[in-house]
């Protein structure tokens, strides 16, 4: 099939860092391997070449405004091309509240600040009107979106429920996970010198949503009995956010790194005692899946859909409670790598690979190409 | 002209009902005048919404605001699919000067330099594709049209599909909303808040615009330093939000100087300050040509402008021009403007704007352009 894979992002798609972009590119490569012609377009910056004659348009929602998606879907419909949409959505209420609290004002006090969030949610629900099929990455996400677009169902000939397939997020098993498991990558001499033998790792952009400030408080609890346990933070830094807690980690057993090459990140994840992602919002957090696929114990936030992915193979914490984050890290540390982590490793590798995701996408595309057979 | 169904489309991260940038204000100004003439106007922010094509538009009018161009290109392609002509207000000027200035002023690393260069090049490419898709180009000056053609020429692959010289074009000048915005302020008492009054000096030079490399306030302040040697009481009032990189680059450079930084202000406040200032200065690296300059001129205030873009095409002999890269040139232009005593010059400046750059005049030309575009497509 000729597949237009459309995503709207300010980022460079050659070096994807955000979850949606990585999912889109991973899916594109896997679809290519299955023999499809895949055209990836950043629709924020350019328009697709419609004369290429696509059979399917598959849109991946990234952060930002939703107008570009609506234009693509509208155009595709005029040309009679079926449109699939991966919405990547989670309610933002708690995140907004916490941003408000973090910045010392109530969420309702500065509606202007949150207008963009509201606008994007509205944009998302409007986009759903134009799509033929949608592929949330979890049952929970599907239920949430159905709630969001409840009213719109009344106007649709085919209700949203009847044109939805859950297609999970995936990790790059053959390209990244297996490579990381097969051989060690050398860290830079400086990084290697600063690295402790035992460390907790959090790979995520440093921002309120990822909640590193509470993770640090949790580490302070753990350091009382275990001062040699290192915290390794990897990711781009939001300057205002980092500034707010930077002083508190001076002299502490913390190693902070900016963004790193994927193979180095995999290496760090593989060797970590525990991987932690206590975010206020994740859907479900690719790094959780990657750590699990590498056999590393995972502490994840109890918010979002990650439980659907990792079930009882991971430790779930209340992201608002440093005490609970600390307790779950401690449990994960004490248990270490066990049969449970081994089973989880295999589960992730088999269920959440891009090749499986591509197969599922293909089934949706085929169904849309042959509606009568379906 | 019979009433048309016109879709005005732009992309902006701001609320469209509260237009702040020149493009947004132009969109609202044109829409208001077109509606007053009996046309049915819908304005859509392409970044946030799809288009209700079922409305059956006669014409799509894209107004190039800042930002990425994907949504415009796709809207035009859909319009073509439906047989609807698409015209584009190009609002374009190359950003080389701005790029070099940012590089130096903000102290970019090699990586930042390379990434920004790539981003600017991609911006040109997006613009070229956007313009090349249009059925008619509506630059706001002849000089702008020439730059648009140069931009398209940078991407020879586009020539395989279109001949850019054959795209029809019409100049639709920028305009001031004299009756709606400027005149009421001129007629009003124009009281400013007490706190602001207490800080304002009797004589001040005004500059309105986001405080950033492009607007060149740092060289304006340097130029004022030359003026202050003889005229220390002359205040400089800067109205506009500071761009974080610029504020960081400036550090304490302006501390202790006779400079009042106001922060962003509503247009009514800006016009009140224009009415009170002795000179309005906008020595930007890039203006096309700057609505604030036009508004100040319509009030009659002597204006100091940069000379790098289409300013001369608009203001002719009614402005004082400076090389924006040279503080002493800005100071010379400021001195000339400050020395202006001739009330006939003031009146001529006002008449120049009112006789050439109002929305009714712009829309006269626009209606003709729409008709031509519809004829070409049909």
Mean pLDDT of chain A: 88
Question: Total domains of chain B, how many?
Answer: 2
Strand content of chain A: 5-15%
As residue ranges, the low-confidence spans of chain B are none
Number of strands of chain B: 11
The main sheet of chain B orders its strands as 8-7-6-9-10-11
Key terms:
heterodimer; A: 374 residues; alpha/beta; Rossmann fold; 2 domains; 16 helices; 11 strands; B: 378 residues; five-stranded parallel beta sheet; 15 helices; globular
Structure description:
- The complex is a heterodimer of chains A (374) and B (378).
- By secondary structure, chain A is α/β, with parallel strands linked by helices.
- Chain A has two domains: 186 residues, 3-Layer(aba) Sandwich (Rossmann fold), CATH 3.40.50; 179 residues, Glycogen Phosphorylase B (Rossmann fold), CATH 3.40.50.2000.
- Chain A is built from 16 helices and eleven strands.
- In chain A, the strands form two sheets. A six-stranded parallel sheet of chain A has the order 8-7-6-9-10-11, sandwiched between helices. A five-stranded parallel sheet of chain A has the order 2-1-3-4-5, sandwiched between helices.
- In chain A, strand 7, helix 10 and strand 8 form a beta-alpha-beta unit.
- The radius of gyration of chain A is 21 Å and the shape is globular.
- Chain A starts with a strand and ends in a 5-residue tail after the last helix.
- Chain B is an alpha/beta fold and 378 residues long.
- Chain B folds into two domains: 191 residues, Glycogen Phosphorylase B (Rossmann fold); 179 residues, 3-Layer(aba) Sandwich (Rossmann fold).
- Helix content of chain B is 47%, strand content 12%.
- Chain B starts with a strand and ends with a helix.
- The chains are: A alpha/beta (374), B alpha/beta (378).
- At the A-B interface, helix 2 and helix 4 of A face helix 2 and helix 4 of B.
